[in-house]
Design brief:
Number of strands: 0
Order of helices and strands: HHHHHHHHHHHHHHHHHHH
Distance between the termini: 43 Å
Number of domains: 1
Shape: globular
CATH architecture: Up-down Bundle
Structural class: mainly alpha
CATH topology: Growth Hormone, Chain: A
Strand content: under 5%
CATH superfamily: MFS general substrate transporter like domains
Length: 498
C-alpha cells in the first residue's frame, strides 16, 4: 500500500483540539501495526524454542542460551537504534519514524523465515545458524519496532489519548498473539514433515505482517516531531550521548516502569514459552494450546477495553497494580488446581485478564516519561527513552527463553518423550505458574514505590512544556540542557498522585 510522504511540519503552537483528539481510523490504524509486528515477533517467542529442541534436536539449555545471548544483544541494539533515530535531525521520505519502519519490514520478514528454515548440516552448524539468524533478526526488529513505539508522543500530547492509543496497541498485540496461538500449529500439522510445516506457517504470518505494518504507516500521522520543536533554533548543537544517558538515569518514572515491565513481561513470556510444553506433556492434549489462545488470550481484550476507563477513574498506576494483583491470585490457585484443559483455560482467563491491564498501559506511560524527561532536562529524546524501556523488555525476553531451557535441562526433559519424569512435570508446572506470581509481586513493588507520575502531573508537565515552547519561539534562543532537579520539583498545583 503506497504511503504518502509527510507534509512539511509547522512550528505553530498546537491548539487543544489538535493536541487531544485523533480519529478512530488513526487509532485503529496504529493498533494494526502491533498485529503485524506480533505476527513477526511471536513466532520466535512461542515456537522457536520448541522448534530448536524438538525439530533441530538442540539441547534445551543450548536453545535457551540462544535466546539469552540474542535478547541481550537486542537490548543494546535497541539503545543504539534509539540514539541513531534521535540524532537524525531530518525526517525521511515517509516521516521521522515511518521511514525506518517501511525500510526494515521486508528484511525482517525474510529473517523470520530464515530462523525456521535451517539447511541440512551438522548439529554444530545448526547451532551457529540459530545464533546468527536470531541475532540478526532481533537487530532488524529493533529498527522497526523502536520507531513504531516512538511515534505515540508525535501523534498526540494528551495523556488520556495516549492511554487510548496504548490500549488499542495492546489490543492489536494480543489479537496478533491470539491468531498466532490458535492458527500456527494447525498449519504445521497439515504437513507430515513438521520442519516444513514450521517454514510454511511462518511464511504465511510473515506476509500478513508486512501487509498490516504497511497499512499502519498509511493510517497514522506524525504531528509533534523533534524537527518542529527545534525549528526556531536550527543551529542548536546535539546533546552528547553521555549526557543523554545520564539524563535517563534521573528519569525516576522511567526507571519504575522499566523494571515493572522487566518483571511482568518476563512472567508473560515465560508462560507463553512453557504452555506449549505444558499442554503436550502434562495435559496430553494437542488442541489445548489452540483453546488456550482462543479463550484465555481472548480475555485480554476486555482488559484492554476497560483499561482507559479504569485508568481515568483510579489512575494508570493503580490500574497497573490492580491487574498484577488479579494475575497473582489466578496463578496462585492455578498451581494447585489445574489438572485438565478446562481448568487451565478457566484460570488462565483470569490471569490473562489481569495481565492485560498493565500491558495495555505501558506504552502510554512511557510516552508520559518522555514529557517528564524533557520537563526536567529540557532535552527531548522520544526514541532513546522508548529504546531504554524496550531494553528491559529484551532482557525479560532473554529470561523467557533462557530460564525455561535451563530449567528443562536441569529437571531432565526428554524431547518428544510421551511420559516425562515427575521432576520434569513439576518444573514445567512451576515455570507456568510460580514464576509469574513471584514476578507479579516484584512488579507491584516497583509501581507502588518507584513510579511517581499521575495523569494530573503529566497534564501539568505538558502545559509547562507548551509555555516553554511559546517562549522559545518568541526569543528564538538556543536551549542548554540543565542539571536534573529533584523529584520533588513539581509545583504545588493541586495535582494528585495516583
Amino acid at each position: 500500500m503506497p504511503v504518502k510522504p509527510p507534509a512539511k511540519h509547522s512550528v505553530a503552537q498546537p491548539s487543544n483540539s489538535q493536541r487531544n483528539r485523533l480519529s478512530w481510523r488513526e487509532r485503529l490504524g496504529y493498533g494494526t501495526g502491533d498485529v503485524g509486528y506480533n505476527f513477526l515477533f511471536d513466532m520466535g517467542q512461542l515456537y522457536l524454542l520448541k522448534f530448536m529442541t524438538d525439530g533441530l534436536g538442540l539441547n534445551p539449555a543450548v536453545g535457551g542460551t540462544v535466546f539469552l545471548v540474542a535478547k541481550i544483544w537486542d537490548g543494546f541494539a535497541d539503545m543504539a537504534v534509539g540514539t541513531w533515530i534521535d540524532n537524525k535531525r531530518k525526517p525521511g521520505r515517509f516521516g521521522r519514524y515511518k521511514s525506518f519502519i517501511l525500510y526494515s519490514v521486508i528484511p525482517l520478514a525474510l529473517l523470520l523465515i530464515a530462523n525456521f528454515t535451517v539447511p541440512e548440516m551438522s548439529l554444530s552448524g545448526k547451532t551457529i545458524w540459530a545464533y546468527a539468524a536470531y541475532i540478526i533478526f532481533g537487530t532488524v526488529y529493533s529498527i522497526g519496532n523502536v520507531s513504531y513505539g516512538s511515534m505515540i508522543p508525535t501523534m498526540t500530547r494528551d495523556p488520556q489519548e495516549r492511554a487510548v492509543l496504548s490500549s488499542i496497541r495492546q489490543g492489536g498485540s494480543n489479537l496478533g498473539l491470539l491468531i498466532a496461538t490458535v492458527a500456527f500449529m494447525p498449519i504445521v500439522h497439515l504437513f507430515t514433515n513438521q520442519r516444513h510445516g514450521y517454514t510454511v506457517a511462518v511464511t504465511c504470518f510473515a506476509i500478513a505482517g508486512i501487509a498490516l505494518i504497511c497499512f499502519m504507516c498509511s493510517s497514522v500521522k506524525e504531528r509533534f516531531t523533534h524537527e518542529a520543536t527545534n525549528a526556531a533554533a536550527p543551529s542548536e548543537s546535539k546533546v552528547p550521548l553521555r549526557t543523554q544517558f545520564k539524563l535517563l538515569l534521573h528519569n525516576r518514572p522511567l526507571i519504575g516502569i522499566a523494571f515493572a515491565n522487566l518483571f511482568s513481561f518476563s512472567a508473560f513470556n515465560v508462560k507463553l514459552a512453557v504452555q506449549v510444553y505444558f499442554t503436550q506433556y502434562i495435559l496430553h492434549d494437542d488442541w489445548a494450546l489452540s483453546y488456550l489462545g482462543l479463550f484465555s488470550i481472548g480475555c485480554v481484550f476486555p482488559a484492554v477495553a476497560i483499561a482507559p476507563w479504569l485508568s481515568k477513574k483510579i489512575g494508570k498506576r493503580n490500574t497497573y497494580i490492580l491487574g498484577c494483583a488479579i494475575w497473582f491470585v489466578a496463578d496462585t490457585i492455578a498451581f494447585f488446581a489445574v489438572h485438565s484443559t478446562l481448568s487451565l483455560v478457566i484460570f488462565s482467563c483470569f490471569a490473562y485478564f489481569g495481565s492485560g491491564l498493565p500491558t495495555s498501559l505501558n506504552w502510554g506511560m512511557v510516552s508520559d516519561c518522555v514529557e517528564y524527561g524533557e520537563y526536567k532536562s529540557e532535552v527531548r529524546n522520544e526514541a532513546l527513552t522508548y529504546s531504554s524501556f524496550t531494553w528491559f523488555r529484551k532482557i525479560s525476553q532473554a529470561a523467557a527463553g533462557f530460564i525455561p531451557g535451563a530449567v528443562l535441562a536441569t529437571v531432565g526433559y526428554v524431547a518428544n518423550a510421551e511420559n516425562q519424569s515427575s521432576g520434569t512435570i513439576f518444573g514445567i508446572r512451576a515455570l507456568m505458574f510460580v514464576y509469574p506470581l513471584v514476578m507479579c509481586v516484584l512488579t507491584i513493588i516497583m509501581m507502588k514505590f518507584v513510579y511517581n507520575l499521575s495523569d494530573d502531573k503529566v497534564r501539568h508537565l505538558i502545559d509547562e512544556l507548551d509555555a516553554r515552547q511559546v517562549s522559545k519561539l518568541a526569543s528564538s534562543g538556543p536551549t542548554t540542557p540543565t542539571a536534573s532537579p529533584s523529584d520533588n520539583e513539581f509545583p504545588s498545583s493541586g495535582a494528585s498522585n495516583d
